[in-house]
Amino acid sequence: MGRRRSTRVALIAVAAATVALGPMTWGGAAGATSAPHAATPSPITANFWLVTSSGAVESYGVPSYGELSGPLNRPIVSTLVDQTQSGYWLVASDGGVFSFGDAAFYGSTGNINLNQPIVGMAQTPDDKGYWMVARDGGIFAFGDAAFYGSTGAIHLNRPIVGMTPTSDGKGYWMVASDGGVFSFGDAAFYGSTGNITLSQPIVNMARTSGDTGYWMVAADGGVFSFGDAKFLGSSAGTASEPVSRLVATGSSDGYWVVQQNGTMAAFGAAVGQTPPTQALMFEAITPGDRAVLFAFQQLGKPYIWGGNGPVGYDCSGLTLASWQNGAGIGFARVANDQYHTAGIPVALDKMAAGDLVFWGSSTADWTTVYHAAIYVGGNGIVESTGDHVQLNLIDQWGMTDIMPSGRHP
Description:
Layout: E1 24-27, E2 48-51, E3 57-60, E4 76-81, E5 87-92, E6 97-101, E7 118-123, E8 129-134, E9 139-143, E10 160-165, E11 171-176, E12 181-185, E13 202-207, E14 213-218, E15 223-227, E16 243-248, E17 254-259, E18 264-268, E19 278-281, H1 287-297, H2 315-327, H3 335-341, E20 344-347, E21 356-360, E22 369-377, E23 380-385, E24 388-393, E25 405-408
Parallel strand pairs: 2-19
Antiparallel strand pairs: 1-15, 2-3, 4-5, 5-6, 7-8, 8-9, 10-11, 11-12, 13-14, 14-15, 16-17, 17-18, 20-25, 21-22, 22-23, 23-24
Helix pairs in contact: 1-2
């Protein structure tokens, strides 16, 4: 429990499939190659939406264009920002598509009996169509998205996890969890990790600007590069949350490795640049993730001094309730005692989703701590402050009073 801070709320709101081992450079969890550029200190302040399997959308640094409410036939499994970054699509495992803002609806497979669930989605260059890809590599094209082939009739060693279209939209690559790559249309094959034992599965791929190479990224942040895609470093062994994707700079001379909670590490020319706005699926993988998801469900509830929920909360009441209800972990009730005793200390640049952040009138004295919040990622927090539970950025009121470390319960 602690004093409330001033209320200032920021706007947050198969034609021919080829799989073979080709030339590559990489930085996986084992045998990582040293990078010519180091990652910038994590976390980078980023603009992003976090999307949950229920279709809730939480906004950091960007306005919300809407979210789903009520029961779904199937969970949301993928999300995608349109080219103008003024809208987004959500897609469910049955291929149901939900469009918000400038993102237009062109069709879905919601009423079709699929052999395998949908796992990903990609839009055409003009945002006037999109593809959906199923776990078996089945492709479903809508709007001006053309069909160039699929692996739906092929026995795969590992399931498909995503797809990336070429820059002109006249072809696409699909990637499996073992790094097997399947190319269609004008998408050329440059290599794969299909014959390599990976420490963690591949989760995403990104092309270079000239379509003459691509990167793949694993769940631990290991990066694998092919063709003219340059290896510039990886987050293998340092990512605190599962990695969701790799996002390349426009000139392909740098990239960001993006964790599922919005935390990003920059490499090459991406260092010092503002990353593009992302929409990310946020899943309950760790106890901290579950604490964050509980905190999300309390958004908008009133600030109540001494409040422990469920009607309302004060700052430390929210942090405690989120860990107790979301992860089954308890600790001290009052903010300064939480800073002094809850879990273990964690450096501010190493925090994971669910870790606790604190403010004090003297950063050298734990007894002066007056406020606590739950860290989400990408410098985002959930806190009970002002008159309600809200989303904010960690540095919204400056960094002067922030205690030198967080706590990992």
